[in-house]
Structure formats: structure tokens, C-alpha cells
Amino acid sequence: MNSRKRLLIVDDNKSIHEDIKKILAINLVNLEIDKFEELLFDEKKETKTSSIDFVIDDAYQGEEALQKVEDAFKESFPYSLIFMDVRMPPGIDGIKTIHRIWDQHPNIEMVICTAYSDYSWDEIMEKFGFTDQLLFIKKPFDAISLKQITYSLTTKWEIGQKNKEYMAYLESEVEKRTAELKKLLEYMRILKEKAEESDRLKSSFLSNMSHEIRSPMTAILGFSSLLEETDLSKEKKSQFISYINNSGLNLLQIINDIIDISKIEAQQLKLYMSACQLNLILLELKDVFEQQIALSKKNIQLILKNDVFENKLKIYTDPLRLKQVFFNLVDNAIKFTSKGSIELGYAIENELIIFYVKDTGIGISNDKKDIIFERFGQADDLFFKNAKGTGLGLAISKNLIEVMGGHIWLESELNVGTTFYFSLPYQLISEDIIIEPKIVSPNSESSLNNKRILIAEDEEINFVYFNELFSLKKIQSDWVKNGQEALDKLSSENNYDLVLMDIKMPVMDGVEAMQKIKQLHRKTPPIIAQTAFALIEEKENYLALGFDDYISKPINIDELFILLHKWLSPSY
Fold first, then answer.
1. What is the pLDDT of residues 117-154, one digit of tens each?
2. Rounded (10°) angle between helices 14-24 and 143-227
């Protein structure tokens, strides 16, 4: 706010202007006024220069005053006080002028200066009402009164302006805070709706998972009970065992999906990068996919492009996660393709390798394309309800690809088919690196004959499984129920060729038992960690703790015998 005060004198008598200006003049030493103040207030005053700082303008009739007020307002330097004469011919008089000024600028203080008025006091009060912004002063002026009135009214006006500005500031702050509050409330509403939608979808997902888990469990338990029947034919037994095996694999896939989505939610996905040969990965998956297609009993042809049989392209990636992505995409294609083909291929563009899985299935509508990769987004969608599985495969694949530094997208047309593309960084691998698949010849099992394995396992049913399996391969096995028993057994008998050590056991767990066994014996048999709580990254953790190797439950027989040959067969 401007520290100077602007005043307007409105009077048709020029001498009135001069009188008021003399009394209020800036830097004017007025000895007579000072002496009068000494008599009035009974105190000695030093002669001083007046500190009043006013800008004083002149108007000689009403219309001119109106224009001056408007001009001052536009200049952002408005009048704080106006001295107004009542009788000002020609044009409008002072009372009408005040009325018109206050219509637009009601905060200006007014002092009516007149020797004679055409209006009575009652008429003026009737016109303006009782207001503290209007004072009367009679001509000729009393200098002290004029000076004090000017001080008081301009100070009052200044306080009013500051209050007005502060109220405007408060209103602005209130509006600002209200707007922020509205935004916050809107944001909270959106979060609430998202949370409710997430809860709804997760509830639907859990309901779906309950069904998906119970279905294979029902098959496993049901056909296991049927196997107890003594009069079953060999074909029936083989068929039931096949049902149990397939149901177990389905259940394992469901559990793996749930584990993966939990790790994605916790941002704990890890990669284990290595050099690998792409054709070996695709050829390995080809056998799995062809079996799936056969089990689906659909008329679908599996096509591998880019001469994957001959092309030994080597890439640097996480092979297990790459297989998982392909498995999810092809499994999805099989679900929604009743006839035609599923094609796999890739192309190299600059520093990217772009894979694709193309099917001739039912296709995906445009409104579904945005939710297809969302977690839990498929669980409540009628489009997907008839499909088996968790509905998490695409969400998992998207996250795996992004963690590996790539991108996934799709092109689709209803009733024509869908093509999923995903890109991964391509790093050329030296031709000197030889990558061959680990193959164990069926006839090589004779090298495991009479090997002796100690199985540390608290679940008897798991030992029964291992014992039956090893007996078929002429491998000897003994059982202990916890880590302490394993420690005692190896302390008394040190003729075991290998130890399969479960991690979770009572009395003493597998980690503590392994460490104590290695402390007691200079030369110990290889100790292999095995656990049902297996995640890909746990292998590195258990090896770091001191285990010689690692295998996860449920035990894959091929993986188990590759591991046994690795440690027990010198020629492997």
C-alpha cells in the first residue's frame, strides 16, 4: 500500500482549496497551530516540521470530481478522503456527487465543507443513513480541527484498506485451501474407489484361485482314492496316474503364479542373467507346447519361424524367465484358439530382439486391450471366465519383460486372432562360448548303482517317494527326520555319497545341520538343499550359506537325476 495519502478538494471556490492546502501542506512550519496546541493540551511543544505526507488534487464541480475519482482508482492510487462542498453550480451538487461516488467506491471518507446547505441534517441522513464515513465541517475552517480530522479519517481509511486487503488475503487463502481440500477429497475419493475396486477384484481373484486350487486337488485326492481299488485294470491305473500328474502340474503352476505376483507386488523380482542359445530354449518349449496342444484336443498347428532348428543365435538373458514369458503367452494362445495355428518367431532390430506369439484365436476387443496386462484385472471379466488358470500370466509376463529391460504390446482383431510382441535388449555373444543342453542318457543310470544317499526329511511321505524312486534305480537310501539326527548319523557313519537336506525341519533345521556337519568332518559328502519354499533367487542364498547344490520341491525327476549325475558320476 502507498504510504502517501491522496486527498481531493471539491469546491467551486478556489480560495477554499488554498486554505485547506495551507493547513495540510507538506513540510510547512506552522507556528500558530503549534502554539494553539500548547494551549489546548497544556504541554510545551517544540517547533517542528509537519510529518503529514499528502497528495492533494482539485475539482471545482461534481462531474469533474467523479472523473478524478475514477482516474485515481485506475492509477491504483485512490483517494482516502474527499472534502466536498454542498453548493456547486453549475452541475450536480455535493450530496448527489457523494451518492454517485459511494455507489462505486464506498470506502472513501467524506467531509462536507459548507457555510450553508440546501439540505437539512435529517435529509442527508435519510439519503445516506447513519454512517461513520461522513463528517461535517463549517466554513471558515478551524485549522486544528481540520488537521485532526484529516489525520483521523485518513488513518481510519488506511486501517480499513489494510483490513480489506487482509480479508481479501484470507478469502484468497480460504479459496486456495478449499480448492486444495477439494483436490485432496477428490484424490481420496479416487483412491477409495480404486481401493474398493482393488478389493473387489482381489476378492474375485481369491474366489477364482480357490476354485482353481480346489479343482486339481479334487482330482488328485479323488483319483488317488480310486487307485486304492484292487480290481482296476492296468489301463485305468495308468489313466488315473496321468490325471493325478497333470493335476499336480496345474496346481504347481497356480502356486508359482501366486508367488510371482506376490513378488511383483513387493518389487522383489530378481534376474539371473547368463549366455544361452535361443534355439535350445525354443526347441525345449516346443515339446511342452505340443503336449499341451495334444491334451487340449484342439486342431492347432504349432509353427516355429526363423529356422530355429538351425540358427544357433546366442543371447544374454535370464533363460528361466524367458521360458516363463513364452509359456504364459503360448498357454494363453492355446486357451483362446480352437483351430488354426500358433506361430512363434523373432527378429533383430538394431539392439533389440523382438519376439512374437501369433494365434488365430477369438481375438481381443479394443476395450479389453487396456486391461489385458493388469494384475487382477482379468479376474472379473466375463471374456476370461471360461478360461482355466489364474489369469495372471499376462500381468506376470509384462512385469518380467519390463524388469529385463523390454516392452510388451499386442495387435488383435476379433474373430481373426492376436499377436503378442515383446522386445528385449540384444547383446551379441561370442561364438567361442559353447552352449549345449544337459542331457542324461537313460542308460547312464547304471553309474548310480549302489550309491548311498542320506535323506533328511521330516515328512515320511516324501521319504517314501524318494525311497521308491531310488530303489527303481538301485540306489540305497536312509531316512532321518531332522537335522540333529542327520548330524548324529553322519558322525557315526561316514560312508554316504550324498545328502538330501530339507531346510524346514523340527529340532534342528537343515542350514544349522549342514554347517555343523561341515565343521565336524574334513571331508563330507555333497549336501544338497531342498525346500518347498523355493524361489529362484534362494539357490544363490543357500549356496552362499555352504550347501553344495540346491533343488526345489516338488522334485522334478529329470532335474534330480541331472543333479545326482553331476555329483556322483565322474564322467558327467
1. 667 777 777 778 778 888 888 878 888 888 889 989 99
2. 70
Residues 411 and 448 placed together within one structural domain of the fold: no
398, 474: one domain: no
| Domain of 550, in residue numbers | 442-568
Mean pLDDT of the chain: 81
Q: Do 126 and 40 belong together in one domain?
A: yes
Please give the model's pTM, rounded to 2 decimal places.
Answer: 0.50
The pLDDT value recorded for residue 513 is: 93
Answer yes or no: is pLDDT of 252 > 90: no
Residue at 82 is within a domain: yes
Helix (H, G, I), strand (E, B) or coil at 177: helix
pLDDT score, position 430: 61
Same domain, 357 and 471: no
* Distance of alpha carbon 2 from alpha carbon 76, whole angstroms: 9
Rounded CA gap, 284 and 278, in Å?
10
Q: Residue 305's pLDDT band (boundaries 50, 70, 90)?
A: confident
> Which of 370, 400, 425 corresponds to the end of one domain?
425
Residues ≥6 apart with Cβ < 8 Å to 124: 95, 112, 117, 134
Residue 302 in contact with residue 293, Cβ under 8 Å? yes
3-state secondary structure 70-110: HHHHHCCCCCCEEEECCCCCCCCCHHHHHHHHHHHCCCCEE
Residue 438 near residue 386, CB atoms below 8 Å: no
How many separate domains does the chain show? 3
Q: Are residues 348 and 384 in the same domain?
A: yes
Region 26-38 average pLDDT: 48
Residue 418 lies in a domain: yes
